[in-house]
């Protein structure tokens, strides 16, 4: 979502709420998981940890019980970010690994020369490095 990329969390939250309201009454759990994931990311950006945890738990409940790889990789990335931000390094690492596994599985659906395959692997490299930096322990003073 563009507004997340430019750190306009208020506008991102508004769009995520619209998506949530639109899909909440439909039997579309894939998009509902994505909506909760977006709401979790916007709450994180706005500094509302309780709201972030609430929407993250709702998103994880959906993706952990269904095969929605498009929603899953985004929700797992968000989970890794949230847990890293709040100091739960072990859970952040768990969700970082789930993110990696899911993106790799998606990439395998395409031939190695396909643009989507290359794009997914590029996202994987970039986001994994960011997530690893967030979950790395500070070095000890000598």
TrEMBL record:
Please, which domain of life does this record's source organism belong to?
Answer: Bacteria
Stated name of the protein: MalT-like TPR region domain-containing protein
Organismal lineage: Bacteria, Pseudomonadati, Pseudomonadota, Alphaproteobacteria, Hyphomicrobiales
């Amino acid at each position: 979502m563009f507004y997340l990329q430019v750190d306009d969390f208020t506008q991102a939250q508004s769009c995520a709420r619209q998506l949530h309201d639109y899909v909440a009454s439909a039997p579309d759990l894939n998009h509902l998981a994505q909506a909760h994931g977006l709401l979790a990311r916007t709450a994180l950006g706005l500094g509302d940890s309780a709201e972030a945890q609430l929407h993250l738990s709702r998103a994880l409940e959906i993706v952990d019980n269904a095969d929605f790889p498009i929603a899953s990789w985004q929700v797992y990335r968000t989970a890794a970010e949230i847990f890293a931000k709040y100091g739960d390094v072990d859970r952040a690492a768990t969700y970082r690994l789930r993110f990696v596994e899911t993106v790799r599985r998606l990439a395998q659906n395409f031939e190695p020369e396909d643009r989507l395959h290359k794009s997914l692997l590029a996202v994987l490299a970039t986001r994994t490095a960011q997530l690893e930096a967030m979950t790395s322990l500070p070095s000890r003073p000598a």
